[in-house]
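assembly run, all chains below
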Amino acid sequence: MNEPLVELKNVSFKYDAETGFALHNVSFNILKGEWLAIVGHNGSGKSTLAKLLNGLHFPLEGSITVGGIPLTEETVWETRKKIGMVFQNPDNQFVGTTVQDDVAFGLENHGIERNDMVQRVAQSLEKVKMAQFLNQEPHHLSGGQKQRVAIAGVIALRPNIIILDESTSMLDPRGREEVLETVRELKQDYHMTVISITHDLEEAAKADRILVMNRGQLYREGTPEEIFQMDEELVKLGLDIPFPVKLSKILREKGLPLSRHYLSEEELVEELWTSHSKM
Amino acid sequence: MMDKMIFGRYVPAESVLHRMDPRSKLVLIFLFVCIVFLANNMLTYGLLTVYTFLMIALSKVPIRFIYTGLKPVLLLVIFTLFLHLFLTKEGEVLFRLGWITIYEEGLRQGIFISLRFFLLILMTSILTLTTTPIEITDGLESLLAPLNKIKFPVHELALMMSISLRFIPTLMQETDKIMKAQTARGVDFSSGPIKERIKAIIPLLIPLFVSSFKRAEELAVAMESRGYRGGEGRTKYRQLSWGLKDTAMLAMLAALTLVLILLRT
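ok done. output:
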């Protein structure tokens, strides 16, 4: 669990058209098997980070190493096999005309043999619970279903790492929960490392570790509990504190003896309904 | 509106034509388009008509469905008929009324040419009615594969086609959404003089274009991140299989061609 799978050293990046750095001197490690959430407001550099990790851009300075191999133009295609990415818009990453064609797209690109391909498509769709939609066309699917197909397309390539780049931000609450649940199961079954880039702190609250990005720099890193201690500071960074954290803070100010900040609604409810008997 | 258009509309059914390899269907239609021009008398046209209706019967697509779909094109066929009827001035005079004179050759030409037109449309509709667009794309890619040797981008063309096919419904949904949003803002799409209505399309087209470009860019990034780097070294998930029925169908068409050559005058 503790060996670093991805290492970033002093990474800086600038888009051609802009003068300021999108990322400036960022260094951190991603550990094998962890769920890492990268949070930050719009333009904090978190999406740029995702693109750098997948070799869609290359750092101006510094280096990125994935599984011990430096990420360069030569190694980028190998790296993309190891790192799968799910993007924000469910429609704009659906390439195939049907569900199975879309899952097969990545496999075709990597020249996987057909018999193997058929097997992997079926298996991956089974895994994300979309097997009964094999021949469905994308416009008949919900956003959450499309994202699950995208995930199937990613896991068909057997990556070690899956990056969710705002993958749930365009979904309704049910679709969001479906997608996150799927990823959680996959992480367990395949021992995958998950990097979820999000501005939804409620989603981040369930991660093992959170990185807070601000203006292209790494602002803070820590466990969700440590990060939510920052409180007002987070609001200043343009992030919204999850409702249970906010509520437990207010309740504490009102004098309720809550022992800590609660990260999930369930935890808070559990504490609240049992606390009365202690008073 | 699009529902009534017969072109590109696939009707699922279990028929020989549905199960045929898209490659053989494409070759068949292409050859048919060529041999239609061999016909030049009653007998040959009659044979072609019989063949076409035989194909419709084989496709198991309901006639009623073909008829409603063809209605808009029928107008064009009738127009062709009248054009020849009135403008050809050869042969004996059949009929004269005021300034309208109809000649024998005009009637002959009119019927033959509009019949030719009609048969062509029928046959090509049979292709699209029995073959899904993606199958047509696969068939084309496979048929055009030899052109790769002269650096013709066959794979790219096929991919472009399949992506457009995939995005048509998405863009239709989006058009619908934008239309509703603009209607809510007071744009009137359905009444007023033509000039006003054409103007009303502008606030529909501009957002559609902007979002399409954004989609295209995001799609390109997504494709690249999934390892797409052109046709080289790519394997194919969809497979085509040429069967006995494909050879048989083509043999039948070859026989028809031979008969046409023998019977034409």
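The first strand of chain A starts at residue 4 and ends at 13.

The CA atoms of residues 98 and 135 of chain A lie 5 Å apart.

not gonna interpret more than that til we talk
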